[in-house]
Amino acid sequence: MSKPLLSKRVLGMVEAATLGMAAAAAAKTAQGHRVLNLSIGEPDFDTPAHIKDAAKKALDDGYTSYTPVQGLPVLREAICEKFKRDNDLDFEPNQIAVSCGAKQSLANIMLAMLDPGDEVILPAPYWVSYTSLITQAAGVPVTIRTDVGADFKITPDELEQAITVKTRLFLFSNPCNPTGSVYSRDELRALAEIVVSYGGLFVVSDEIYEYIHFGGADEDGHVSIGALDGMRDRTITVNGFSKGFAMTGWRLGYLGGPEWLARAVAKVQGQFTSGAAAFSQVAAAHALRSDLAASYAMRDTYRRRRDQVMSGLSEIPGIETTRPQGAFYSFSDVSSYYGKRVGERVIKGSEDFCRYLLDEANVATVPGAAFGDDRCFRISFAASDADLKEALERIKGALAALQ
Question: Which of 39, 216, 219, 259 has an alpha carbon 20 to 30 Å from 400's alpha carbon atom?
Answer without folding.
Answer: 39
